[in-house]
Amino acid sequence: MEILNYDRTAVYQYAKKWAFGRNPEFYDFSKIGGDCTNFASQCIYAGAKIMNYTPTFGWFYKSANDRTPSWTGVQYLYNFLIGNEGAGPFAEEVPLNKLEVGDIVQLGRATGDFYHSPVVVGVSRGRISVAAHSYDAFNKPLSSYNYEQARGIHIVGVRKN
């Protein structure tokens, strides 16, 4: 399996273009549980350009009714990216100070329940800026969010069959 580079510039450009809007190619889940992980997946796809069409446990979006749980679910996206050994993007969990543009931060409660998946769009002198949906944001300081714990998901690369 060939390993390709993850295009972090494309992720940034996509996030900038759609942070305050909705790409009509994707359903807007804002009113039914939130659109943050859907937006994060769209951004990742902009940089990866390869989906994983494995039923249930892959990572793909064909329509609102034909997608994997990992496309829109916070924990499912984490599970896919960290565990993916097939096609598409793969990642490792890292401390926040190891994140780069195009990576994902997931915010959670002390109980270990993670509920938000902002996309990293800036890293400067230890400060992380993010883009997100549901509560639309671009270049928002991560420090302005209220959360009890955060985990960094660093996208290492993309596998192509």
What do these coordinates show?
With 161 residues, this protein is an alpha+beta fold. It has 4 helices and 10 strands. Helix 1 runs antiparallel to helix 2. The chain is globular, with a radius of gyration of 14 Å. Helix content is 24%, strand content 32%. It has helices spanning 8-18, 36-48, 69-72, 74-83, and strands at 2-4, 61-63, 66-67, 88-94, 104-108, 114-116, 119-124, 127-132, 137-141, 149-160. The chain has a single domain, classed as Alpha-Beta Complex (endopeptidase fold (from Nostoc punctiforme)).
What is the CATH C level class, in words? Alpha Beta
Nearest-angstrom radius of gyration?
Answer: 14 Å
CATH architecture: Alpha-Beta Complex
* DSSP summary, beta strand count: 10
Pick out the low-confidence regions. Answer: none
Keywords:
about 160 residues, single chain, 10 strands, endopeptidase fold (from Nostoc punctiforme), alpha+beta
Provide a compact summary of the structure:
This protein has 161 residues and is an alpha+beta fold. The chain has 4 helices and 10 strands, in the order E-H-H-E-E-H-H-E-E-E-E-E-E-E.
Please outline the helices and strands.
Elements: E1 2-4, H1 8-18, H2 36-48, E2 61-63, E3 66-67, H3 69-72, H4 74-83, E4 88-94, E5 104-108, E6 114-116, E7 119-124, E8 127-132, E9 137-141, E10 149-160
Helix pairs in contact: 1-2
